[in-house]
């Protein structure tokens, strides 16, 4: 069936922001005296900051969130960029008449800062953030909200992400799912989570559309 809509995760998929996220979490963990287990918190990327804070900080979750947001916004521009060829890829999809969207677990302020700073905004027909739904990835609600806004059936949509949470959300929503090798899961991770396809570079997207 013809694809009408391509949805993307943001961090680790379009935006090379994982260094910023790890740097910010390390600062928060150090300040709050939380032991840093190698890759422990990074395995949660794709979930909301509230989920992460409650898991790692418990009753100090709100303090965790406030510290994270302070450091994140202070360091954002220094550590954030797009992955190579992202804007040309998006421009090509728009020229073909596809509608595009972002589905992210970030809050709206942080998500829109990245979207505007990196130049993604002109290409996006919708941006769904953690503030737009009550239930979050890996549940399908954010993907379904994007499809609702775009009046598109899931069978005509593809969701592209870099983590297991993206694949679970897209699959449950009824879209096709694609994993990228340059984000959290890397190449090896997709053997376990089995998206419908894996992208080694943006040029690979064409064969799934």
From TrEMBL:
A cellular-component GO term for this protein: cytosol
InterPro entries noted in UniProt: HAD-like_hydrolase_sf, HAD-like_sf, HAD-SF_hydro_IA, HAD_2, HAD_sf, PGP-like_dom2
One GO process term, biological-process aspect: DNA repair
A Pfam family that the UniProt record links to this protein: HAD_2
A GO term for molecular function: phosphoglycolate phosphatase activity
Domain of life (superkingdom): Bacteria
NCBIfam families registered for this protein in UniProt: HAD-SF-IA-v1, HAD-SF-IA-v3
The name this protein goes by in its record: Haloacid dehalogenase
Provenance organism: Desulfotomaculum copahuensis
């Amino acid at each position: 069936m013809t694809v009408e809509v391509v949805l993307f995760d943001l961090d680790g998929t379009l935006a090379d922001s994982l260094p910023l996220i790890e740097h910010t979490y390390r600062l928060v963990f150090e300040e709050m005296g939380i032991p840093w287990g190698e890759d422990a918190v990074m395995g949660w990327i794709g979930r909301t900051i509230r989920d992460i804070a409650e898991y790692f900080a418990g009753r100090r979750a709100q303090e965790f969130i406030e510290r994270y947001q302070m450091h994140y916004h202070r360091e954002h521009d220094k550590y954030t960029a797009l992955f190579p060829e992202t804007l040309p890829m998006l421009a090509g999809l728009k020229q073909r008449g596809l509608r595009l969207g972002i589905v992210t677990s970030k809050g709206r302020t942080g998500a829109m800062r990245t979207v505007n700073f990196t130049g993604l905004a002109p290409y996006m027909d919708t941006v769904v953030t953690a503030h737009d739904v009550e239930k979050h990835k890996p549940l399908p609600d954010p993907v379904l909200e994007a499809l609702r806004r775009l009046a598109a059936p899931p069978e005509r949509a593809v969701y592209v992400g870099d983590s297991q949470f993206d694949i679970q959300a897209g699959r449950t929503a009824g879209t096709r799912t694609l994993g990228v090798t340059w984000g959290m899961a890397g190449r090896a991770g997709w053997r376990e989570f089995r998206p419908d396809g894996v992208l080694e570079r943006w040029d690979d997207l064409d064969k799934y559309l």
